[in-house]
Amino acid sequence: MATQDKRSDTSDFPEIINTDNLQSNMKSIYYSRTFLSIIGGVIAGIWGFTGFTGFVFYFVVMLAASFGLAAKAKFSADSYFDSWNRVLLDGILGGLMSFVLFWTFAYDIVHIF
């Protein structure tokens, strides 16, 4: 009867995640989403979006950001993050206030003044 060497079988052990790299990657996602929220708000204001269409535009921008971040990670989020939710959903509502601020600011400058 042959015995298996347990040290060579790594399927039973969880993947080790470097917390410093994970925090750095999460900061990158946060900064990217904040920057795109500001740029998206300015664009929505210049284009004259009002009401519901402005918020739809925000979520379209965030969807594009999620796709871009996933593409940057080569669609292998497990290598850079602990779950796909970190890439796709984390921080989406965090940039909403910045979006609304710059949306109304740009709209006022272009269409009211």
From TrEMBL:
Its main location: endoplasmic reticulum. Coiled coil: none annotated. The chain crosses the membrane at residues 30-49, 55-75, 87-107. It is a multi-pass membrane protein. One of its GO terms (biological process) is autophagosome assembly. Keywords: Endoplasmic reticulum, Membrane, Transmembrane, Transmembrane helix. The keyword Iron does not apply. It comes from the Eukaryota. GO terms for cellular component: EMC complex. It is found in: Endoplasmic reticulum membrane. InterPro entries: Emc6, EMC6-like. Belongs to the EMC6 family. This is ER membrane protein complex subunit 6.
